[in-house]
Write a structure and sequence with these properties.
The chain is an all-beta fold. The chain contains no helices and eleven strands. The strands form two sheets. Strands 2, 4, 5, 6, 9, 10 and 11 form a seven-stranded mixed sheet that branches. A four-stranded antiparallel sheet has the order 1-3-8-7, with no helix packed on it.
Length: 119
């Protein structure tokens, strides 16, 4: 079992920056992929950035060039550096992980952290 704990959300003005952190505990070495999704009110959850096998990073189209995902394996932590934030980035950001051999139903999710960008 893996537990994901996010931190770093908050309120920021448009154009500002935030860094989110997600600490994975438990069987974190068994993860195939880890990263971030977000969900805004009345919208579906969408991909922000995920790092998977071979250190391949996939970004959502709306954050490319502004957000950077990184990982510190020694700390079992992933970071999401968010620059040039826009009001449309306002959402609850969830840390996500998928175990080796797992599928969608096996995914782990954190409790979420709120990011609010004011105009």
């Amino acid at each position: 079992q893996v537990q994901l704990v996010e931190s770093g959300g908050g309120l920021v003005q448009a154009g500002g920056s935030l860094r989110l952190s997600c600490v994975a505990s438990g069987a974190s070495s068994s993860l195939k992929a880890i990263g971030w999704y977000r969900q805004a009110p009345q919208q579906e959850r969408e991909l922000v950035a995920v790092i998977s096998t071979g250190s391949t990073i996939t970004y959502g189209d709306s954050v490319k060039g502004r957000f950077t995902l990184s990982r510190d394996n020694a700390k079992a932590t992933v970071y999401l550096q968010m620059n040039n934030l826009k009001p449309q980035d306002t959402a609850v950001y969830y840390c996500y992980a998928r175990p080796w051999g797992g599928s969608e139903g096996d995914d782990y999710w954190g409790q979420g952290t709120q990011v609010t960008v004011s105009s």
